[in-house]
Design a protein that fits this description.
The protein is α/β, with parallel strands linked by helices. The chain contains 13 helices and ten strands. The structure holds acetoacetyl-coenzyme A.
Length: about 260
């Protein structure tokens, strides 16, 4: 897979996507987001890939949507072109787990892209923010929706209205990121986490992802029912037999459906 604005490579069973537009701090121009969508689609279809990591550079995961590209947009350009929706949705719809490995700036659309992933591993250098208000716009790729779900209303309002940045420590305390690691260990940690996930039964991993996401879309009782049904369904999997037999026989499981 060869791209202009990203690098996509398989690292064992992990699909690694590196945003690679360093001169613009990985600003998310349409071609970059299209390439990201294509790479995710390829990794999702690739039987040898069990988990995906999206990362940027030491300085920036991504500094947001491309301001130069959209500065002269009319309402019709944005609406008719379905800006954001059209090509930004693939991270959300990908059925395999996607981890964001964030160092440096994750601002605006960059923060929103990270939040669209299943979880965020942050370098101690990470800075998160929704500074759109400074540009005379509002977040448009989920900032006003995913941020309050992740960190609560007070902090989400604060970040979106003040445009201030939140460092990795604050982001972890607030629940936006799952772990903080030293910047020089970020990729190693993220790939390690992804390899671990990719070693488990893929249908089970996909079910877990679907179930956790369901928690944000349903009442508690509906979510619990959905989980119970899928829990029951898991007993139809060969990998359930293998996982439990391996435990009883005190050996490592050899999952078939990876
Ligand atoms: N779009 C386009 N280009 C960008 C960019 C962006 N979002 N962010 C940075 N760049 C470019 C700069 O224009 C600059 O290019 P030149 O060298 O050609 O001038 C280059 O990247 C380096 O940037 P800086 O010189 O500004 O670097 P810095 O270290 O001084 O500052 C920064 C870093 C604080 C991240 C600053 O670049 C910045 O504030 N960027 C914009 C952040 C922002 O407002 N993001 C939200 C965008 S709108 C959005 O994302 C909408 C949405 O919800 C989808």
């Amino acid at each position: 897979m060869t791209y202009e604005y990203i690098i996509a490579e398989a690292k064992g069973r992990v699909g690694l996507i590196t945003l690679n537009r360093p001169k613009a701090l990985n600003a998310l121009c349409d071609p970059l987001v299209d390439e990201l969508g294509d790479a995710l689609t390829e990794f999702e279809a690739d039987e040898n890939i069990g988990c995906i990591v999206i990362t940027g550079s030491d300085k920036a995961f991504a500094a947001g949507a491309d301001i130069s590209m959209m500065k002269d947009f009319s309402y019709m350009d944005a609406y008719k072109g379905d800006y954001i929706t059209r090509n930004w949705e693939k991270v959300k719809t990908c059925r395999k787990p996607v981890i964001a490995a964030v160092a440096g700036y994750a601002l605006g659309g960059g923060c929103e892209l990270a939040m669209s992933c299943d979880f965020i591993i942050a370098a101690d250098s990470a800075q998160f923010g929704q500074p759109e208000v400074k540009l005379g716009i509002l977040p448009g790729a989920g900032g006003t929706q995913r941020l309050p779900r992740a960190v609560g209303k007070a902090k989400a309002m604060d970040l979106c209205l003040s445009a201030r940045m939140m460092d990795a420590t604050e982001a972890e305390r607030a629940g936006l990121v799952s772990r903080i690691v030293p910047a020089d260990k970020l990729l190693e940690e993220a790939l390690g986490a992804a390899e671990k996930i990719a070693s488990y039964s893929l249908p089970v991993v996909m079910m877990i992802k679907e179930n956790v996401n369901r928690a944000f879309e349903s009442s508690l009782n509906e979510g619990l029912l959905f989980e119970r049904r899928q829990f029951h369904a898991a007993f139809a999997l060969e990998d359930q037999k293998e996982g439990m037999a391996a435990f009883v026989e005190k050996r490592k499981p050899a999952f078939k459906h990876r």
